[in-house]
Amino acid sequence: MSLVHFVYGFIFISLFLLWKLINACYISPVRTLRKLRSNGLGGPTPSFPLGNLSDMKQMLIKAKSLSSSSLLSSSSESISHDIHSSSLPYFAQWKKLHGKVYVYWMGVEPFVYIADPEFLKEMSGKVFSRNWGKPNVFRSDRVPMLGECGLSMIEGNAWARHRHIITPAFSSTNLKGMVDSMVESTIKMIKNWSTLLGNSSKLELELDVEREFPVLGGETMAKTNFGIHNSEVENTLLEKLREIQISLFKHTRYVGVPYGKFLSMRQTLKARKLGKEIDGILLSIINARREIIGVEPRQHEDLLRLLLEGEDHFDGQLTTKELIDECKTFFFGGHETVALSMTWTSMLLAMYPKWQDELREEIKEVIGDKDDIDFTMLARLKKMGWVFNESQRLYPSSPNLQRQARSDIQVGNVVIPNGTNIWIDVVGMHHDPDLWGNDVNEFKPERFDGDLYGGCKNKMGYLPFGFGGRMCIGKNYALMEYKIVMSLILRRFSFSVAPSYHHFPTYFFSFRPGSGVPLIVKPL
Ligand code: HEM
Fold first, then answer.
1. What residue ranges are annotated as transmembrane (predicted)?
2. Angstrom distances, CA of residue 24 to CA of 29, 30, 105, 200, 395
């Protein structure tokens, strides 16, 4: 090949790559924006290449400075549950300006924002569960934490196959076999609290429950679903997962911005390294279990055994990578969500002692004084169910749901073009006065008395566990653990909000307390 051919070839390839880049980063997004606008969807004006990210950052800084001035008086009475306006101010403000369905941009990625349950109902009626996509823009970003092949990330036939293998792990027959383990771990935590109390000169203890519940959640998840009984391994996994979450979501990052990863390289590399370390730990757990599968005693069908047996039962075995990613997904999704639900519930019960008394009455009636909790008792803890529902309404463990259209979706006059990302603002719907009435930001568990949807005007407006076939697979496990833990604690302790508590719910992947939830715990 002559030099001239080489130079022409080089120029041609460079121009082709440049054209592809301009098309992906500019022409295609502008075309999508025009399409969505011509469908009547409004929204904030994006700028290139950040989209609306800098507006979002500015609005958040402003809302934070407003709430930090009110932090100085963070007494129980001054705590507001209106977390939509304070923690997601951009969505709250754009909703006022553009309605409950609009388009906003993360970098060059368009997101159709939805906080209209009727629109969501019609849209979800058009798409089968296995045809929903998960936004590609988040996929590579979340790999260190959730892997690529775990249930929450995969689509199509792979999703259907994994869901089919995993579902029996959470059947009622199987859940029954996990009760004793959950009781045992909770009693262990309570004994630690009692020892701390015994060592203290006071009759009460200040405890940050945000630190306590993830450890408990991690331990029960490890025992009941992975057959791990080694607190050192659990703690290492939990610590690393927490660090990944902080490095991926707590700091400003540029998701959706072309080459945005390079702008937060340090966090990205740190998360990747931690992700690999977690993979290594999980692989050794999987290998150890492979050695004893078939000969170990069976107490219940734990998740890891089903996944390993799924290797043999189905066309195309689960690869080692699929196994690791599934373990990661469940370890993270299974402990964090439940721990957060117990953390926010404890804060709410500390604020409203009347509800502690109501629950104690119910626990006494249903369970009595023993620690012998029977699976059938849990369904009879009705008021505790209302408290769970109400705390999920105000502080949902999964504040949003994300999808990506895999074909054009027509909803009324609107066509959501193939490839568009969809952001369902669950917390926005849970705090919408049009759906719940003027007392929307008040803690009123009684709204769920005899009504699974708490009086919400539209059933798609209350989605703590998601919707359709993609609904949370661990819902019954979560409720079971919540009821066991809260019953055992409430029977022994009362709690109130510590003066050092600052109400500062912060959104990073989930809603976390900005600086822990210190409570004053007193033995009864
Ligand atoms: C209070 C506790 C929990 C809440 C509020 C919650 C919430 C949710 C929500 C909203 C979804 C739907 C996500 C979507 O549509 O994209 C989901 C999915 C999922 N949840 Fe949970 N969850 C909880 C506990 C658990 C537990 C304990 C486990 C495991 C044992 C678990 C495992 C999963 C998995 C694997 C998925 C993905 C399901 C799929 O895509 O097919 N969750 N969860």
1. 6-27
2. 7, 10, 14, 62, 37
pLDDT < 50 stretches in the chain: 72-73
**pLDDT tens digit sequence for 269-294:** 888 999 999 999 999 989 988 888 77
pTM score, two decimals?
0.93
Residue nearest to atom 20 of ligand 1 (CA): 472
Question: In whole angstroms, what is the distance from residue 212 CA to residue 339 CA?
Answer: 8
Q: Which tens digit of pLDDT belongs to each residue from 34-85?
A: 888 888 899 999 988 899 999 999 999 998 887 765 554 455 667 899 999 9
Best residue among 337, 401, 470 to mutate for probing ligand 1, ranked by most atoms within 8 Å of CB: 337
Ligand 1 centre from 199 Cα, in Å? 39
Contact 492, 470 (CB under 8 A): no
What is the predicted pLDDT for the residue at 69? 58
Question: Left, alpha or beta for 462 (phi > 0: left; psi -120 to 50: alpha)?
Answer: beta
In the prediction, which pLDDT does 72 show?
A: 46
User: Binding-site residues for heme, please?
Assistant: 472
Question: In angstroms, rounded to a whole number, what is the distance separating the alpha carbons of residues 373 and 25?
Answer: 57
Please name which of 506, 440, 486 lies closest in space to residue 212, comparing C-alpha atoms. Answer: 486
Mutation pick for ligand 1 pocket among 300, 472, 511 (CB with most ligand atoms within 8 Å): 472
- Looking at residue 73, its pLDDT comes to 47
Cβ–ligand 1 distance for 133 under 6 Å, the answer no
Contacts of 489 (CB under 8 A, 6+ apart): 186, 190
Tokens standing for residue 61: 């800084």
**Residue 151, ligand 1, Cβ within 6 A:** yes
Q: State the pLDDT at residue 315.
A: 53
341 Cβ closer than 6 Å to some ligand 1 atom: yes
Q: Would you say the CB of residue 334 lies under 6 angstroms from ligand 1?
A: yes
**pLDDT at residue 355 in the model:** 98
How many angstroms is it from 462 CA to the middle of ligand 1?
A: 15
**What is the maximum alpha-carbon separation in the chain?**
90
CA distances from 474 to 243, 337, 392 (A): 24, 10, 15
Residue with token string 């109390």 = 197
Q: Are 104 and 52 in contact (CB under 8 A)?
A: yes
Q: Is the CB–ligand 1 distance for residue 478 below 6 Å? A: yes
Output the CA 152–ligand 1 centroid distance in Å. Answer: 8
